[in-house]
Amino acid sequence: MKKLNVAIVGATGLVGREFIKVLEQQRFPVSSVRLLDAEHAVGSELFFDHRSIPVEDILPEAFQDTDVAMFFASTDVSRRIVPVAVRAGAVVIDNSTAFSGEEDVPLVVPEINPEDISLNKGIICNPNCTALQLSVILNPLHQFNPVKRVIISTYQSVSSSGAAALKELTTQIKQVLDGYRVCPHIYAHQIAFNVLPEIGLFLDNGYTKEEQRIAEETRKVMHADNISISATCVRVPVFYGDSSAVHIEFDSPMNPDKVRNILADAPGVRIIDDCSVSLYPQPWAVSGSSRVFVGRIRRDISKSNGVVLWIVADNIYRGAALNALRILEEGAQRGWIISKKIQEE
Amino acid sequence: MKKLNVAIVGATGLVGREFIKVLEQQRFPVSSVRLLDAEHAVGSELFFDHRSIPVEDILPEAFQDTDVAMFFASTDVSRRIVPVAVRAGAVVIDNSTAFSGEEDVPLVVPEINPEDISLNKGIICNPNCTALQLSVILNPLHQFNPVKRVIISTYQSVSSSGAAALKELTTQIKQVLDGYRVCPHIYAHQIAFNVLPEIGLFLDNGYTKEEQRIAEETRKVMHADNISISATCVRVPVFYGDSSAVHIEFDSPMNPDKVRNILADAPGVRIIDDCSVSLYPQPWAVSGSSRVFVGRIRRDISKSNGVVLWIVADNIYRGAALNALRILEEGAQRGWIISKKIQEE
């Protein structure tokens, strides 16, 4: 496998930094790494593989020699710059929502639909963390017994809103404990000691963009247009790790033990489920882990054919950085993402 | 209405203190108030109506002249002492789970089933906060269009676990921010910056006691045995206020506007629902309020006849203390709870 020239856009953000760490840890073969970010970060330096690398401005020239451009910036930045990178000949792996809904843009979880990488026309998208963890759990079950309907309520951490949100939570917590009132910036209301049922913009149907995205992206990754999904997305005062309470209705009766057996062998999944000693996944405990964790597996007492689960994964590491790297690895190994030099040869 | 002699068991706990405040605020006519609590609190004094009242030991003699005994202690204390109070001739209003499941013990939300108070044989129970808020919202809708199934995921505050849990959350928060590890006492795991899908003991079917209780108590209060309810109960790092994401399936199609109209006129309910300016109920904001708040009212995109809601109420004030007082008020006004002296005349 030829080494690749990789550019990382949004390199100084939470996910960008996490990706640099993952790239290093997983020893993915790169011939060069360029770090790009908005003006405020230009001039700073980040370490990669024991070398200090300067952060550069996001200019079109930056993609000249780039084989793969990883985008961990805002949707706005992706919308403006991804086409520039593609025109310069780079394959883009994008973590934003800018293109994830477009029909000819593959949305990939390598454990589920790696072949979709081959269909890319320059852009491959990384799904939303909740859609990712939901599809990693649903897909193996769906192969065995088709899933008809999913109801999901989320408990999402602030880190998905970036480093400023981590700061905001810490600041507000201290203010509340010291008796001060807080002044929200990142969220519409106080997040310290509070929960907010608002993630993303509100749509006309009363759902939020995030809630809609979970439904659409889960179906797209699983190639399962017929699954009905209704989500309520809630921000909770947690730093890292997104959790979900998930009620699944299957086509035919589904034994919780069968669910356990299937998930025990499922790629990327780890079961933590022993009620007798209060064992179940928790965001604090699974933070920094590469698996999707599932527990509290039980029959839904309100529905025949129903099963209830509790799912947790690290939204930054597992949900964003590691999945993006796995798309890159899978694409490079299978020859779907290749060095420009090879293409030109 | 004859004034009553009231004894408050568990007077120094979170709910006990809140009840004393509510009793004072609502100017319920008492002729005497006795404060009872476990040994560690005996000798301390609490203020009621500008008088300092000593906290006494929970001894059988304490109920001699008591017309009504309010129980805000643990389930264990209720199990042991409620029969003693009943034998002494007091009517008991119990906030624990000790007797709430028994067939001949009424479980009352005065907005819904006040007449059940008249059926008491000495004990009337106060429901669990989540069952209370769920039934206050479901009941008026159910009258219009029968509810078939409810899926509820909760975001429950630590105050339901008592004053020690408030302290544990604050202590752990400080420890985490200062870089220390935490040592959980009240909960099985860290609650600071974490969420725990465990409230109450685990049952054989994989649900917890709290999840089962929500289903059973909601049906009992509403006299609606046919509603299927499946709950996932989750503790979140919030001081006061329990929230729930609720998916309701009705017998026939239900327009969200109709839901809004019905709830606008429903007793004890307040709608906060304007997505255009990020308005929805939040536990921090509704803390200390006497209503059950509802927002994010929308059609369930995964089910015809389905509606999704977000419900929040103060678990200590609204869910426990105020409901207990309303049972007492309603019972006293309607002559179902009366002074022993009148009974003897």
Beta strand % of chain A: 15-25%
The largest beta-sheet of chain A arranges its strands as 3-4-2-1-5-6-7
Radius of gyration of chain A: 20 Å
Low-confidence stretches of chain A: none
Largest interface: A-B, 56 and 56 residues
Cα distance spanning the termini of chain A: 15 Å
Biggest pleated sheet of chain A: 7 strands, mixed
Global outline of chain A: globular
Count of helix runs of chain A: 9
Oligomeric state as shown: homodimer
Order of helices and strands of chain A: EHEEEEHEEHEHHEEHEHEEHH
What is the CATH fold-level name of the largest domain in chain A? Dihydrodipicolinate Reductase, domain 2
Number of domains of chain A: 2
Protein model, in words:
Two copies of one chain form a homodimer. Chain A is globular and about 60 Å long. In chain A, helix 3 crosses helix 5. Chain A is built from nine helices and 13 strands. The mean pLDDT of chain A is 95. The first copy, chain A, is of the alpha/beta class.
